[in-house]
Amino acid sequence: MGTPCHFALFELQPSFKLDLDQLATRYRELARGVHPDRFADASEREQRLALEQSASLNEAYQTLKSPSKRARYLLAMSGRDMPLEVTVHDPEFLMQQMQWREELEDLQDDADTAGIAVFKRRLKAAQDQLNDNFAACWDDAAQREQAERLMRRMQFLDKLSYEVRQLEERLDD
């Protein structure tokens, strides 16, 4: 038997829109039940099982908590297998990516913390918009290709977001 679906693990219906507070609460409840410390006196097999369950639970939680990972997971569940790194046939978005990258480089060169804060807000707004667009597309099976395109955009913005956080940390040092 394979591992249960991430959604089933949390007793949720597969959906892009999730109540993240509810997810976090359920995660904490489940995590307590499989925490390795609870199995300190158990057999080696039970300890190993608890460790595996704990790892599966963590992976499921990290996947469902992140909009882009959740989108990717839903697409995979729907039978669309996507390579991790793909070329995006999305010229408009490629131009947008280049602009964002250049802007981030300028902010980095100038060590412009105020500019970075503004950039982060714009990035967050773009991410929220993509999440809304994906949610709208996801419910329509005819729009799976568009959903895939949006998911790839989401992944790029995640990466950009991570780079912004790293830049902020470097500037804070």
TrEMBL record:
<comment type="similarity">
    <text>Belongs to the HscB family.</text>
</comment>
<dbReference type="GO" id="GO:0044571">
    <property type="term" value="P:[2Fe-2S] cluster assembly"/>
</dbReference>
<dbReference type="GO" id="GO:0006457">
    <property type="term" value="P:protein folding"/>
</dbReference>
<dbReference type="InterPro" id="IPR009073">
    <property type="entry name" value="HscB_oligo_C"/>
</dbReference>
<dbReference type="InterPro" id="IPR036869">
    <property type="entry name" value="J_dom_sf"/>
</dbReference>
<dbReference type="InterPro" id="IPR001623">
    <property type="entry name" value="DnaJ_domain"/>
</dbReference>
<dbReference type="GO" id="GO:0051087">
    <property type="term" value="F:protein-folding chaperone binding"/>
</dbReference>
<dbReference type="InterPro" id="IPR004640">
    <property type="entry name" value="HscB"/>
</dbReference>
<dbReference type="GO" id="GO:1990230">
    <property type="term" value="C:iron-sulfur cluster transfer complex"/>
</dbReference>
<feature type="domain" description="J">
    <location>
        <begin position="5"/>
        <end position="77"/>
    </location>
</feature>
<dbReference type="InterPro" id="IPR036386">
    <property type="entry name" value="HscB_C_sf"/>
</dbReference>
<comment type="subunit">
    <text>Interacts with HscA and stimulates its ATPase activity.</text>
</comment>
<keyword id="KW-0143">Chaperone</keyword>
<comment type="function">
    <text>Co-chaperone involved in the maturation of iron-sulfur cluster-containing proteins. Seems to help targeting proteins to be folded toward HscA.</text>
</comment>
<dbReference type="GO" id="GO:0051259">
    <property type="term" value="P:protein complex oligomerization"/>
</dbReference>
<protein>
    <recommendedName>
        <fullName>Co-chaperone protein HscB homolog</fullName>
    </recommendedName>
</protein>
<dbReference type="Pfam" id="PF00226">
    <property type="entry name" value="DnaJ"/>
</dbReference>
<dbReference type="Pfam" id="PF07743">
    <property type="entry name" value="HSCB_C"/>
</dbReference>
<dbReference type="GO" id="GO:0001671">
    <property type="term" value="F:ATPase activator activity"/>
</dbReference>
